[in-house]
Design brief:
With 285 residues, this protein is α/β, with parallel strands linked by helices. The protein is built from ten helices and ten strands. Strands 6-7-8-3-9-10 form a six-stranded mixed sheet, sandwiched between helices. Strands 2-1-4-5 form a four-stranded antiparallel sheet, with helices on one face. A hairpin with a 2-residue loop joins strand 9 (215-220) and strand 10 (223-228). The mean pLDDT is 91.
Length: 285
C-alpha cells in the first residue's frame, strides 16, 4: 500500500488577513515498502503534508489516495477515516509529550482500545510493541514520566506500533537524541522497513537522509522542488541554497576534485567512503 498525492492545496487561517498557503499544488507518489525522506526548511510544508496522509489535515483542493481511501474535502466527514488511521501511523516530533496514562503498558494500549480492541488483547499487543522497541517487562507497570527522554520516545513509538499500521511517518525522529541513541532508533526504523513497512521520515538531518532514504522529496514554500535519490540530490546541491551536504559527501566530492575515481552513488556512510577509496587505490597500485 502506497500513497498518491494529487494536486493538493492547503491554507492555514483561510479567512484571516494573515492566511498562509502551506501546500501549493503538491503531487507525489510513495510506493509500497518505500523508505522516503521529506526535507525542506522550517515552514516549507513538510509536517502539513505528512498530516494529510492520515487525514489529520484535509486538503482544501486535490486528494491523497491511500489504498482505497481518498483524503479530500469531499470525504472529510467519512467514517472510513478511522480505518485509515489504523493503516497510517504518525509519530510526531517529541511524541513523548503525548504520554498521559498512569503506566507504560496502558499508554501503549490506549490507541488500540480507542479502536475498539478488548483490554486483554490491547495489553498483549502493547507488550509485543514494547519488546519490539527494546523495553522489557520491567517497564510495563512503570509511570511514563519516570522514564528517560529516550525511553519515553520509545514508549510513544510503541503506541503506534501496537496498532500495526502499514505506513509509518516519523516527524524528526532523532531530534534531541545523542548519536548513539539516534543510531539505535534508526536501526529500529530500518528493521520495521525490512519487515515490510513503508517508512516516511521528515527531517532536517542530511546525514540521516543520505544513509537511510531511498527517495527524497524536497519542499520549498509549499511546493515540491526536488524528487529523486539522495545521490541525485547531493550531486546537484549547488542548485539549492538551503541544502546542507553531509560531511561524508563533502569529503567524497573533495577527493573527486583531486582526481579520485569515486562513485558517489555508493557512498552513504563513512565505511562506504573508505571502501571506495580502497577500491580506487587498488586500481593504481
Amino acid at each position: 500500500m502506497g500513497i498518491k498525492v494529487e494536486n493538493i492545496f492547503y491554507t492555514y487561517q483561510k479567512k484571516a488577513s494573515n492566511s498562509t498557503l502551506a501546500l501549493d499544488n503538491v503531487s507525489l507518489n510513495i510506493e509500497e515498502n518505500d523508505f522516503v525522506a521529506i526535507i525542506g526548511e522550517t515552514g516549507s510544508g513538510k509536517s502539513t503534508l505528512a498530516q494529510t496522509f492520515n487525514a489529520l489535515i484535509v486538503p482544501d483542493q486535490g486528494q491523497v489516495q491511500v489504498n482505497d481511501f481518498a483524503v479530500s474535502y469531499k470525504n472529510r466527514k467519512s467514517k472510513k477515516v478511522r480505518n485509515l488511521r489504523k493503516q497510517v501511523g504518525l509519530v510526531f516530533q517529541f511524541p513523548e509529550y503525548q504520554l498521559f496514562e498512569e503506566t507504560v503498558e496502558k499508554d501503549v494500549a490506549f490507541g488500540l482500545k480507542n479502536f475498539g480492541e478488548k483490554n486483554e488483547e490491547a495489553i498483549a499487543a502493547a507488550h509485543r510493541a514494547l519488546r519490539k522497541v527494546g523495553l522489557d517487562e520491567s517497564y510495563y507497570k512503570r509511570p511514563p514520566f519516570e522514564l528517560s527522554g529516550g525511553e519515553r520516545r520509545k514508549v510513544a513509538i510503541a503506541g503506534i506500533l501496537a496498532i500495526n499500521p502499514d505506513i509509518l511517518v516519523f516527524d524528526e525522529p532523532t531530534v534531541g537524541f545523542d548519536p548513539a541513541s539516534a543510531k539505535e532508533l534508526m536501526s529500529l526504523i530500518v528493521n520495521l522497513h525490512m519487515s515490510g513497512k513503508t517508512i516516511i521520515v521528515i527531517t532536517h538531518d542530511m546525514d540521516l537522509v543520505n544513509e537511510y532514504a531511498k527517495k527524497v522529496f524536497m519542499l520549498e514554500k509549499g511546493k515540491v522542488i526536488f524528487e529523486g535519490t539522495p545521490s541525485e540530490l547531493f550531486n546537484n546541491a549547488k542548485q539549492y541554497d538551503c541544502l546542507e551536504i553531509p560531511m561524508v559527501i563533502k569529503l567524497a566530492l573533495a577527493l573527486k576534485e583531486k582526481g579520485a575515481d569515486i562513485d558517489l552513488n555508493k557512498i552513504h556512510t563513512t565505511d562506504d567512503l573508505l571502501e571506495e577509496i580502497k577500491r580506487w587505490r587498488g586500481k593504481h597500485e
